[in-house]
Amino acid sequence: MSDAASAGGPGTPTATQVVRRAGLAAAWGTAVLQGRCAPDDAAAAIVGVDEPHRITGIDPDPVGWTVALGRLRGRGATVLVMVAPVPGDVAALPGPPELNRQALAAGAAVFADGSPAAGLVPRIDTFGPAGDRGVLLTWAAESANGPVAAGRRPTVGEADRALAEALDEGLRRLATLDVARWRPEAATLHDDLDGPVGIRLPPGFPERAVRLLARTQRMTAVLDLGRTDSGGAVTSAEAAQRQVTLDGLARVVRHAQAAAWNAGAEAGR
Q1: 166: buried, middle or exposed (CB in 10 Å: 19+, 13-18, 0-12)?
Q2: Over the stretch 19-46, which tens digit does the pLDDT of each residue have?
Q3: Residue 247 CB partners (closer than 8 Å, separation 6+)
Q4: Under a CB-based contact definition with an 8 Å cutoff, are residues 50 and 1 in contact?
């Protein structure tokens, strides 16, 4: 499972790349369940350049996304919703506790409604000799206490507004603490992009969600840059304030990114 499509290079995917795969599964899976695309097309888009994904817990033997989506549809599922939990930010996880723990450890999970509701948690396994190591993504499906409640996931419009407000406030704070080289990059965060880089989205995906996804992609890159040094903070109090601001922005960005990936699930709300 390489990550050429997301410019991550070969090797084990980063947390950001795992979240992206969960987002692709939610967006394309929902498109299949709503009849907007064929299962084979969705499976190809979710897997991309990876080794074929395996989904366990759907059938007695591991299956691919084409079969898995068919089985979920047969159970009455109408949407897939992605969640990217981190410690202290797990309210969207529906349970049970062990499934929540697995999702938190993985950094992402996808939940399907239907009977029973299900949670799919990604697991990365390595194979092959040293120097020629490959990775394989397996999704373990487990029964969930329910789907992700609509009230626990913002709409695209709500997330877009929350992100804009967080950026206005957060960047003002960072401007007093960070080195000048940060400011030109931060100044571009409100710019709309043509679309998120390296991501193929399903037919009918809302344009506002495309723009929001692009903005969160840019913001994630800038936050990663911000964590590489202490900026212009020169005292421990300034460094602490800077970290609190970065953490707050990261939380809003995660929620906005999830809202964008889950845009197809808004139809039933």
Answers
A1: buried
A2: 999 999 999 999 999 999 999 999 999 9
A3: none
A4: yes
Contact present, 216 and 253 (Cβ < 8 Å): yes
Q: Are residues 38 and 133 in the same domain?
A: yes
SS3 139: strand
pLDDT tens digits, residue range 175-209?
666 543 444 455 455 555 455 667 899 999 999 99
| Of 119, 152, 185, the domain-final residue | 152
Are 130 and 19 part of one and the same domain?
yes
Strands across the sheet containing 118-127: 54-56, 134-143, 118-127, 109-112, 80-83
Sign of CA dihedral 217, 220, 225, 231: positive
- Shared domain for 108 and 204, answered yes or no, is no
- The span from the first CA to the last CA of the chain, in angstroms, equals 35
Backbone conformation region of residue 35, classed left if phi is above 0, alpha if psi is from -120 to 50, else beta:
left
